[in-house]
């Protein structure tokens, strides 16, 4: 029997993020008052507390903020080692998304190196963020 990773439970605040990922894109709320990208999605801006948010499609480009390789079975459905990556988004570096590095791209990258976020489907119908290198930039 194959063990799959736990599935998210989308709610009113996060459903559009997961739907965009399933369609192959990245979408997050952006504050109309201060311009901050709200990540993770919440009903109000963490900077100015405004509830005036618009969902925007983002480029998926970002910068390597940090990464960690986990050598124990910490993520159900994934055999160790698993590399977890923090990516600051190009549109707002304060917004950090966590993704998996399933292709081993961050091992040779310096901090602040360009990365691309994409979504990779899993067998249960969700798509999860993964990173790829943006060396061509």
UniProtKB/TrEMBL annotation:
Residues 18-54 form the ChsH2 rubredoxin-like zinc ribbon domain. It comes from Antarcticimicrobium luteum. SUPFAM superfamilies: Nucleic acid-binding proteins. Coiled coil: none annotated. Residues 55-120 form the ChsH2 C-terminal OB-fold domain. InterPro entries: ChsH2_C, ChsH2_Znr, NA-bd_OB-fold, Thioester_dehydratase-like. The lineage of its organism: Bacteria, Pseudomonadati, Pseudomonadota, Alphaproteobacteria, Rhodobacterales. Pfam families: OB_ChsH2_C, zf-ChsH2. This is DNA-binding protein.
């Amino acid at each position: 029997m194959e063990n799959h990773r736990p599935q998210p439970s989308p709610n009113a605040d996060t459903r559009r993020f997961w739907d965009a990922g399933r369609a192959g894109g990245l979408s997050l709320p952006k504050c109309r008052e201060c311009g901050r990208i709200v990540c993770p999605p919440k009903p109000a801006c963490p900077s100015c507390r405004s509830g005036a948010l618009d969902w925007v499609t983002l480029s998926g480009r970002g910068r390597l903020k940090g990464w960690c390789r986990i050598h124990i079975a910490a993520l159900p459905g994934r055999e160790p080692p698993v590399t977890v990556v923090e990516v600051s988004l190009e549109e707002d570096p304060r917004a950090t998304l966590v993704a998996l590095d399933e292709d081993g791209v961050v091992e040779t990258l310096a901090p602040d190196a360009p990365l691309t976020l994409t979504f990779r489907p899993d067998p249960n119908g969700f798509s999860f963020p993964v990173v790829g290198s943006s060396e061509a930039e």
